[in-house]
Amino acid sequence: MSCKFTKFNLQKILKFPFQFKIFHSMWLIHFSFLMLPLLFSNTSDSKNVDFEICLSGEEKELYEIIMVYRSSKKLPQIPFSAKLTKVAQAHARDLAQQYNFDTDSKCNPHSWSKKGDWTSCCYTNDHKQAQCMWDKPREIANYEGDGYEIAYYHSVGAKAKPALEGWQKSKGHNPLLVNLGIWKQIEWKGVGVGIFENYAVVWFGRIDDPSKIVSCD
């Protein structure tokens, strides 16, 4: 494996946008989070290992509308990855069941609990725990490359369209979705999606993992 280090201005780019909505006197909160790690080029090839992974209707829609969005920008489709989806679904469920969402918490939603077969971490906004993020595809799904995550939270439940709309409006998230800025030269070769209760997450990778989309229905 060969690695190349690329520098960029973290303080300028790293943002965690949020919006507050009021509806019938109830606070409905949704947050979008972005993992912007230091970029490394990885030349390893991953073995195509079949996982028993299926997509819910919302998850399938999320993948499809992201690809439609990329097509509108004349960008190629990103192949669906069962391995990255295994990671995405595991994290969405872990967040919903173990993470206590609090805007004042030092541990943001890129954190992982101790309740799974992975390395736990409190992911802070200074990205000192970035390795915890990069390693998750290897730890969970035998994916041989680093993983890059964007995550979305809504207090009454995450849905595909609002999640994408939130990311599209974000100067931190949109470039990753459509390869702008520091992501312009990156070729995504796999993407995985996961939605569970209040969380939607998408994982991107640069290692091939051609997989078939299987519906859970």
Strand content range: 15-25%
Count of distinct strands: 7
Distance between the termini: 39 Å
Q: What's the main sheet like? A: 5 strands, antiparallel
Q: Would you tell me the structural class of the helices and strands?
A: alpha+beta
Q: In what order do the strands lie side by side in the largest sheet?
A: 2-3-5-7-6
Radius of gyration using CA atoms only:
16 Å
From N to C, what is the helix and strand string?
EHEEEHHHEHHEE
**Number of H- or I-type helical stretches:** 6
Output mean pLDDT. Answer: 80
Contiguous low-pLDDT stretches (5 residues minimum) are 1-31, 36-49
Instruction: Give the proportion of residues in helices.
Output: 25-40%
Shape: globular
Structure description:
By secondary structure, the protein is an alpha+beta fold. 29% of the residues lie in helices and 18% in strands. It contains six helices and seven strands. The chain has helices at residues 10-13, 57-72, 82-98, 130-141, 160-168, 174-177; strands at residues 5-6, 18-23, 26-34, 39-40, 148-154, 190-196, 199-205. The strands form two sheets. A five-stranded antiparallel sheet has the order 2-3-5-7-6, sandwiched between helices. Strands 1-4 form a two-stranded antiparallel ribbon. β6 (190-196) and β7 form a beta hairpin. α2 (57-72) runs parallel beside α5 (160-168) and α3 (82-98) packs across α4 (130-141). The longest helix has 17 residues, at 82-98. 38% of the residues are buried.
